[in-house]
Write a structure and sequence with these properties.
The structure holds two protein chains of two kinds. Chain A is mainly α. Chain A has helices at 22-42, 50-62, 65-73, 78-85, 92-99, 105-124, 133-148, 182-193, 223-237, 242-258, 263-271, 274-278, 301-312; strands spanning 171-175, 178-180, 197-198, 201-203, 216-217, 220-221, 284-287. In chain A, strand 1 and strand 2 form a beta hairpin. The longest helix of chain A is centred in the N-terminal third of the chain and has 21 residues, at 22-42. By secondary structure, chain B is α/β, with parallel strands linked by helices. Helix content of chain B is 39%, strand content 19%. Chain B has helices at residues 33-42, 64-67, 77-81, 88-92, 112-122, 132-145, 151-168, and strands at 15-22, 27-28, 31-32, 49-55, 72-76, 103-107, 127-129. Classes of the chains: A mainly alpha, B alpha/beta.
Chain lengths: 313, 170
């Protein structure tokens, strides 16, 4: 886990009533940084395996004489100091806290709707998967573009139409390959890292899309992803929330249009969209809504959060 | 700037790196950021890593492709984040999106250690410096790990470089 050394910043206070002051924390972290740097130099680097790295943090950094001297000087809890000395200080609880990331509600919905997009598209497509990263990028763009073209009755003259209220939060730029969003790429990577989707190589030629220049990657749900979508599928389809149903409807419409298109047909279809034709390469094409929902709007929020946090763990 | 992937550890060193500064005034903790950068560089071990500070214009702060190419980000809290004037930074600093092995150090001049802890709860996995010495300490640990002088440091630099290349489509 990159940058995990930061667990040292809280491990002394954790579980005790002791608190650093401005001055004492400065002394502590300065001693920690010196010990860390010296130990790194003497060992020709830090261990890369998690358990070895944790031992390094305890034995080579916290137990360094300079760090212990500061801790005694600032009257840190004796139990912490003795736990450092005998190697039993509990880094794990701090590590667990470090790993904890609380998803925002809008993030969760983007991820869930992406998974649903993969499933719904796969059902309609003869290949039973989204055939390329190129197609995923364009599909998500088309969903948001669909929403732009829907009337937003509560916000007069909004140039983003219904996208002002709902849809993916992603920001799209116009690249050589057409509409492309780094946000989509990142969220796709997150789903892959959590083993909710698979990305088999399906062609030795690239599509021209960013990160798909040398091979073509299809996108399909993993078994775990199928379970995740199944759990929430009916709740999305039968929702009372207008903004979720409008989003889902736009997504369904675009999937139906695109599912049977070849790569060149899709390219042509996207390139004839006015905004794509008129936006300069590198220019901003579309911005999704920054904040969509109130947490009280969706009753299955905590279930959804729990599922993604389990998937990530 | 980043131009190519590293295919092996042999080509990682020497490595040139930029230290990104996001600030309106160019000053923090009573000094110019360039002076703080000099102090940070003076604390780097070995001669396989060269670091150059880079002041990115705030009017172009949404240019994530440019920001990504820096392994350390120094961000002035009161000038850039406190007023939420640059909301895209919240996305860039999202723990699940911020590049592995990169380091974001938020610098706050008001509120000391308690304020730093409060900001860290909001911006998880950043380091929050409230003084020159806390800033130097965080940077020192980062450049101990992210330093091709050592084998594990080469691996980290290679991993970071190639992750950024992937995200930039290089």
């Amino acid at each position: 886990m990159p940058n995990e050394w930061k667990v040292l910043t809280r491990v002394i206070e954790r579980g005790s009533e002791f608190e650093f002051t401005d001055e004492t924390y400065e002394q502590y972290i300065t001693a920690v940084s010196a010990a860390y740097a010296d130990a790194t130099a003497s060992r020709d680097g830090t261990p890369t395996a998690d358990d070895e790295y944790h031992s390094f943090l305890v034995e080579d950094v916290l137990a360094d004489g300079r760090v212990l001297a500061v801790l005694e000087d600032v009257e840190a809890p004796p139990s912490k100091i003795s736990a450092i000395n005998d190697g039993t200080i509990d880094l794990d609880a701090s590590v667990d806290q470090w790993h904890e990331i609380r998803f925002t509600f809008d993030e969760l919905l983007d991820l869930l709707m992406l998974l649903k997009l993969v499933r719904d598209y796969s059902e309609l497509s003869s290949s039973k998967k989204i055939e390329s990263r190129f197609k995923l990028q364009k599909l998500v763009y088309l969903v948001n573009h669909n929403l732009v073209n829907q009337e937003n009755y509560s916000l007069a003259n909004s140039r983003f139409g219904l996208l002002s209220k709902t849809g993916y939060r992603y920001r799209y730029a116009n690249r050589e390959s057409g509409p492309y969003s780094e946000d989509v790429y990142e969220d796709k990577n997150r789903l892959f890292a959590w083993e909710l989707i698979d990305e088999p190589v399906v062609g030795s030629d690239g599509t021209g899309e960013v990160a798909e220049r040398n091979h073509q990657y299809a996108i399909e749900l993993s078994a775990q992803g199928e379970i995740m979508v199944e759990r929430f599928y009916d709740q999305i389809e039968s929702t009372d929330s207008f903004i979720i149903s409008a989003w889902n409807q736009a997504q369904t419409e675009e999937i139906q249009k695109v599912a049977q298109m070849t790569h060149s047909e899709l390219t042509e279809y996207v390139n004839q969209i006015d905004d794509v034709r008129t936006t300069t390469k590198g220019g901003e094409l579309l911005i999704g809504p920054e904040n969509k929902f109130q947490e009280t709007e969706i009753e299955y929020l905590e279930d959804l959060r729990g599922e993604f946090e389990n998937a990530r763990a | 700037m980043i131009e190519k992937r590293y295919d092996s550890l042999d080509v990682v060193s020497p490595h040139e790196q930029y230290l990104l500064v996001l600030s309106e005034s160019g000053r923090c903790f009573g000094s110019d950021f360039s002076e703080l950068a000099r102090e940070i560089k003076a604390r780097i071990d070995g001669d396989e890593l060269t670091v150059q500070e880079y002041f990115h214009p705030l009017e172009d702060v949404s240019n994530s492709s440019r920001l990504l190419q820096n392994s350390v980000w120094l961000i002035h809290w009161e000038e850039c984040l406190q007023g939420e004037d640059y909301s895209c930074l919240d996305s860039f600093l999202d723990p699940s999106l911020f590049p592995n092995y990169a380091e974001a150090i938020i610098c706050t001049e008001e509120g000391g250690y308690d304020k730093a802890k409060e900001i860290e709860r909001e911006y998880k996995r950043t380091s929050v410096a409230y003084s020159r010495d806390t800033l130097f300490a965080y940077a020192k640990v980062h450049f101990s790990d992210f330093n091709p002088t050592h084998t594990s440091g080469k691996e980290r630099v290679k991993s970071w470089n190639n992750e950024i290349c992937e995200r930039l489509g290089i």
